[in-house]
Design brief:
By secondary structure, the chain is α/β, with parallel strands linked by helices. The protein has helices at about 10-15, 25-35, 45-50, 55-65, 80-95, 100-115, 125-130; strands at about 5, 40, 75, 115-120, 140. It has a five-stranded parallel beta sheet with strand order 3-2-1-4-5. Helix 1 (about 10-15) packs across helix 2 and helix 5 packs across helix 6 (about 100-115). Residues about 145-153 have low confidence and may be disordered.
């Protein structure tokens, strides 16, 4: 098992995607997902995943069943009011990225929970965002890509 990970929308969708024969469409993403000791799914990410799976309700029902099954490594994380406020601070600080509320919330939850790995397809944003009181901590983007959240505060 590897360290906990925060799931962003694109990373989670890729990790769960299947080919016609049932195999993983993106094996690297699936490997990161299944090897993490804990997979934190922020509430706004789940809402965004639901939007993308609007034509695949069975897949969404399966994800929700797994997410709320106490035997899995998934943990659903409701955004706190402070996470929303912090997300907007990230959006303002990194305004050129136009990260928005969902990605800002992913960064805020990572910061609050001190989980410095994110499963994402959005390398540009999460490769640039820094968290911590001085926006100085980088992290890891997936395990097979560049670092994100690797510098110490």
């Amino acid at each position: 098992m590897t360290a906990p990970i925060i799931a962003d929308t694109g990373g989670l969708l890729r990790a769960l995607a299947r080919t016609g024969d049932g195999g993983p469409s993106f094996p690297d993403y699936e490997t990161v997902l299944i090897s993490a000791s804990l997979v934190i799914v922020p509430g706004l990410v789940l809402a965004e995943v639901d939007y993308f799976l609007r034509e695949s309700r069975a897949a969404m029902r399966k994800l929700v069943a797994e997410l709320f099954d106490a035997r899995t490594r998934y943990e659903y994380e409701l955004p706190l009011a402070s996470d929303i406020v912090r997300a907007l601070e990230f959006d303002a600080k990194f305004r050129d990225l136009r990260i928005g509320l969902v990605d800002g919330t992913v960064a805020a939850v990572a910061e609050r929970r001190q989980v410095y790995r994110v499963l994402t397809t959005d390398r540009r944003d999460f490769g640039t965002i820094r968290i911590g009181p001085r926006f100085s901590r980088a992290g890891r983007v997936n395990d097979f890509e560049t670092t994100w959240f690797s510098n110490l505060l």
